[in-house]
Specification:
This protein is of the alpha+beta class. Among the domains are: 188 residues, Lambda Exonuclease, Chain A, CATH 3.90.320; 45 residues, no CATH class. Helices cover 47% and strands 13% of the residues. Strands 1-2-5-6-9-10 form a six-stranded mixed beta sheet. Strands 3-4 form a two-stranded antiparallel sheet. Strands 7-8 form a two-stranded antiparallel sheet. Helix 2 crosses helix 7.
């Protein structure tokens, strides 16, 4: 009897998604995924290219976050300003604020290559130009919208930083252009932190390109150039930001991600994430993927409200935060924890330590109440 061949992983993920066009990986998605690497649900949804916002809406949980059209329009306008005239404003920043002796720079537009906008074509041309610059043949180059790749959960992600420049201290720097303002040289710390996490994704991808080309990664800076409006004007302001902490954290989290195709292979054959299918079919398939909900998911994941209700339904400790989840290892329900505390049920060997800590905390609480 001939052996039955398993379905290729990419075909399985594509079949899960259905006829909808795939949503590509972005630096924002990767930072969200690595913020919760234990979440198999997000790993499969991102790897399959599922539109998570539409999926959440189809099962009755429309996301309640995202950029407004006005913010998007402002960001696009600021991007246009920085890039106008062959990155004239970026060159001015390099010269005036960062003391880089440059009067001009050759800008290579990688939004297309000979009219071809395919990501793999643009990525190949990006690698060629990087090797060209790294070998010292041209030190005046700015790459506009280069394409880099990074392995994420066993999948190849194509990433597009705003720009890469080779003009700061002779090293390659990732450039991110953001529309939030820097008032008196200080920008919103949360916005800067998010930009830094995304920049770290691009730097790791740039290192991968260097490794692939056999080039020394020491030519890549551990800082990135953040360009944003100065004060209350639209005049661009530049600042170098150290990424070493973000790079270490991102590298560690990427190693913790499970391969998305392995997770998808565990789903029933009838599973589907096709947003044109019925709510019942979608819900059953989503539930078959293990989630790892924490309250922080509400700030970055489109499926968070769905997962929150699911966690509430099974009284998952994670719904109270990472601290509670970590303090109750092996206990998958707060109801079970209360049963252990009240003596209604006896903990198993794996839960004994957590149950003892709960009892100690309860005694301390009673003592404090008595003292009050």
């Amino acid at each position: 009897m001939p052996s039955q061949q398993s379905e290729p992983p990419d075909d399985r993920l594509a079949r899960l998604r259905g006829p909808q066009p795939p949503q590509p990986y972005t630096a924002r998605k990767i930072t969200a995924l690595t913020a919760n690497p234990a979440c198999a649900r997000r790993a499969v949804l991102d790897a399959a290219g599922v539109d998570k916002a539409l999926l959440a809406q189809q099962v009755g949980y429309e996301p309640r976050f995202g950029q407004s059209p006005f913010a998007l329009a402002r960001e696009q306008a600021f991007h246009g300003l920085v890039k106008w005239g062959g990155y004239a404003e970026l060159i001015r920043l390099l010269r005036e604020q960062l003391s880089v002796p440059v009067a001009e720079a050759h800008v290579t537009d990688l939004n297309e290559v000979g009219g071809n906008t395919a990501l793999h074509v643009r990525e190949r041309e990006t690698r060629r130009l990087i090797a060209h610059v790294a070998s010292g043949q041209d030190v005046r180059l700015i790459l506009d919208r280069p394409v880099l790749t990074l392995e994420v959960a066993g999948q190849t992600a194509y990433l597009e930083p705003d720009a890469i420049t080779h003009r700061i201290e002779g090293k390659f720097h990732v450039v991110l252009i953001r529309s939030f303002a820097a008032i008196d040289g200080q920008a919103n710390p949360t916005a800067v932190a998010e930009a830094a996490k995304q920049a770290a994704v691009y730097v790791l991808a740039l290192r991968r390109a260097f490794d692939t080309a056999g080039l020394p990664t020491e030519q890549i800076s551990h800082e990135f150039l953040l360009v944003c409006p100065k004060d209350f004007s639209n005049r661009p302001y530049g600042r170098l930001i150290d990424l070493r902490q973000e790079l270490d954290a991102l590298q560690f989290q990427l190693t913790r991600l499970r391969r998305a195709e392995d997770l998808a292979a565990q789903l029933p054959e009838t599973a589907t994430l096709d947003t044109t299918r019925s709510t019942d079919e979608l819900s059953a398939s989503i539930e078959a993927l293990d989630a790892s909900y924490t309250p922080s998911c509400l700030s970055f994941c489109e499926m968070a409200r769905y997962c929150r209700d699911e966690a509430d339904g099974c009284a998952s400790p994670a719904r109270l935060g990472n601290g509670v989840r970590n303090d109750l290892p092996g206990i998958d329900s707060t109801r079970t924890a209360l049963d252990y505390l009240d003596g209604v049920a006896a903990p198993g060997e794996a839960e004994t330590e957590a149950a003892d800590l709960l009892r100690a905390a309860a005694r301390l609480r009673r003592l404090r109440r008595g003292a009050a």
